[in-house]
């Protein structure tokens, strides 16, 4: 059975998102149809709009969705109709990375998340009688309804029964990436210093997680003073403006060097400077989307000599089944207060929400598609 829905269609940088009538395909055995309650807007949606990622346009974006399951295919065990769920990235479940519970590095990441169709090439969504690119991150949740999959849906645990879905929506991308980078990828140790470059959603999540891990000091760097102020309220012990010799100030504060430098800006001069601040055995983690042609340069002797490491990080090395419930539990305990980052918009204000994100006015815009 097909399902009528409304979806925001992205046609590129020079066109506003347009909400139009679409039809969702009938479900396959491993798929779920979710009525979308809310969806966060992430930098990666805009990177696709701006053609920095190889996702075909026009496309229905949105990859931080939360909603209520309406129908499930015959092979779905992860949730049932009526369940409250959050959605994240999809993966194949059968490659060496998926076998090692490291699905963010799925060998089949592209066909399952960015091809615009199901991994087998069939469309999940139609505009009129024509297929339209969708299945973005296995969901395309800038829409009232979405087809998701057994591997990218997590049922909201009972401990979070009172937390509204429009708050939980963004947990499946930027928040998970920043927190996972600290807790899973770099495995930040208590008592060691960390600096976080860029305090958007990913950097703020990293700062909250660094506090959970007991890092000290926790240094935030950004070019917006309002974001630095919020970073201090969320766990940073020091905050430096990147326009005002932040690197020199960090060197002065931590003369022995940083245990961890985490870059979310994707600016290669910042990554190089951050790497230069590492103590022996220090780790420089990077997540920022940068120009595919960019290179970073490290001194070979310093790289080897101190056992320093550079780590590319996708999705915070999150195994959704275990890590999203862990983060939700931190939130319920008040240790991961990401609600401080959110600004809400109605679905039909999607272009205003994007503008608020790009101007820096709102750290994490969340669109509301319907009541819970
Ligand atoms: N690797 C992954 O799995 C993954 C997942 C989610 C997002 N991302 C990427 O991570 C990056 C961060 O995402 P976000 O949602 O937090 O984005 P964001 O734009 O909200 O945050 C970036 C921050 O960097 C700051 N910044 C810009 N120039 C700076 C400078 N010169 N010095 C210091 N700070 C500076 C900005 O003011 C902003 O606060 C994006 O590139 C996004 O595409 C990667
Ligand atoms: Zn895989
Ligand atoms: Zn994202």
TrEMBL record:
Any one GO molecular function term: oxidoreductase activity, acting on the CH-OH group of donors, NAD or NADP as acceptor
Pfam family, one: ADH_N
InterPro entries: ADH-like_C (IPR013149), ADH-like_N (IPR013154), ADH_Zn_CS (IPR002328), ER (IPR020843), GroES-like_sf (IPR011032), NAD(P)-bd_dom_sf (IPR036291)
Names of required cofactors: Zn(2+)
Domain named Enoyl reductase (ER): residues: 12-367
Record-stated family: Belongs to the zinc-containing alcohol dehydrogenase family.
The protein's name in its UniProt record: Alcohol dehydrogenase catalytic domain-containing protein
Source organism per UniProt: Croceibacterium xixiisoli
């Amino acid at each position: 059975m097909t399902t009528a829905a409304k979806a925001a269609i992205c046609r590129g940088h020079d066109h506003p998102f347009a909400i139009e009538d679409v039809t969702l395909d009938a479900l396959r055995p491993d798929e779920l149809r979710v009525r979308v309650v809310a969806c966060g807007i992430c930098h990666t949606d805009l990177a696709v709009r701006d053609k920095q990622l190889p996702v075909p346009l026009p496309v229905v974006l949105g990859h931080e969705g939360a909603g209520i399951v309406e129908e499930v295919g015959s092979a779905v065990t992860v949730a049932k109709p009526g369940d409250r769920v959050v959605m994240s990235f999809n993966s194949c479940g059968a490659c060496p990375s998926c076998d090692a519970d490291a699905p963010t590095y799925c060998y089949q990441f592209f066909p399952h998340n960015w091809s615009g169709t199901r991994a087998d090439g069939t469309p999940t969504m139609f505009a009129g009688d024509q297929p339209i690119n969708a299945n973005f991150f296995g969901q395309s949740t800038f829409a009232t309804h979405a087809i998701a999959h057994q591997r990218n849906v997590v049922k909201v645990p009972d401990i979070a029964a009172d937390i509204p879905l429009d708050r939980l929506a963004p947990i499946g991308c930027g928040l998970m990436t920043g927190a996972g980078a600290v807790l899973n990828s770099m495995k930040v140790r208590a008592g060691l210093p960390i600096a976080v470059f860029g305090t958007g959603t990913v950097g703020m999540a990293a700062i909250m997680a660094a506090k959970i891990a007991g890092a000290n000091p926790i240094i935030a760097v950004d070019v917006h003073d309002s974001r630095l102020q919020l970073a201090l309220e969320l766990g940073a012990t020091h905050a430096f403006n990147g326009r005002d010799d932040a690197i020199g100030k960090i060197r002065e504060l931590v003369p022995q060097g940083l245990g961890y430098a985490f870059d979310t800006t994707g600016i290669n001069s910042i990554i190089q400077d951050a790497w230069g601040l590492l103590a022996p055995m220090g780790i420089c983690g990077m997540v920022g989307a940068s120009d595919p042609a960019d290179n970073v340069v490290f001194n070979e002797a310093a790289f080897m000599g101190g056992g320093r490491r550079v780590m590319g990080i996708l999705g915070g090395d999150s195994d959704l089944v275990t890590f999203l419930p862990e983060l939700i539990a931190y939130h319920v305990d008040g240790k991961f207060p990401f609600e401080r980052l959110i600004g809400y918009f109605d679905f039909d204000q999607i272009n205003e929400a994007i503008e608020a994100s790009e101007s820096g006015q709102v750290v994490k815009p969340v669109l509301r598609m319907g009541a819970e």
